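Figure S4 source data
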Amino acid sequence: LDTLEKWVTEIFSEIPNNGLPKPSFGHLTQPFDTPEFHKLYRVVPIRKVHSLSITWALPPQEQYYRVKPLHYISWLVGHEGKGSVLSFLRKKFWALALYGGNGETGFEQNSTYSIFSISVTLTDEGYKHFYEVAHVVFQYVKMLQQRGPDKRQVIWEEIQKIEANEFHYQEQTDPVDYVESLCENMQLFKKEDFLTGDQLLFEYKPEV
């Protein structure tokens, strides 16, 4: 560590600090508040595949990185066991797979908005009933909203433990990629969370 610190000091200490604050675009609210966003688009795919994607534009979620509400919701939506959306759609022979969430990239999550998407891989029969598939997805989201998260702390803690295990036992990454990732984290999180802010869940806040 002493050697590494010496190298970093030699290489980077001459880079000037211009003292400017991190740019924020929080004043540019509701970028998707346009009629073009509230539409159904049919796209002809190159491969023979049927996919239904539903996208919501939400307020910025960066500030809630210690809670990760979108990760929590995507966990519930993407559940594949009894009573899940995918389980129901599979019994109807309408869907093969379902996933939802936010990629946490700059395009999907930034200081202006956060995207939340649910994508369903449809069967040929499911494609014929894609309106009903969309209706089922919205029903499930509505159910989550009405029941609220108060009784689901156990689920949140389960997610927290799984993410902690994945963090502690992750494979070693390429050093250059790791440094690049840390530099990005330095723009987003508090100093004590540079190493863990993008992976771990820290606080359970049902109101968020």
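Figure S5 source data
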Amino acid sequence: ETSSTTLAFALYELALQTKLQERLRQEIEATIKKHNNEFTYECMEDMHYMKQVLAETQCKYPIAPNLMRQAAADYVVPGHPNYVIKKGMMVTIPTIGIHYDPATYPEPDKFDPERLSADALRLRDSVDWL
């Protein structure tokens, strides 16, 4: 169910932006040709733009809008010493709040696979994409 939901949203976004759709189609055709016209695991791993499209889809339409985590140790909230997350306390992490933060992802409503390119990922904290 989660895979089909992600693929449905990816296809929806690609239908809205035919230039992205064409770029992905060209990558798929070129990569399959490079792998002797065989669609294998290695072939799929070579589709870097495909990974970006799927990652951006998951960023814009997260399957889990919130993540529940348990604090491993006491944590004093920076700048607020009276607020302490006690060890063992359950914490809700708002996935969609992080993914839609314009400080991290400019124009968060825009579908832009380039924001998840290898170069862009190196400039961002690894916890900014859940």
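The two ends are 19 Å apart (CA to CA). Strands lie at 66-70, 75-76, 84-85, 90-94.
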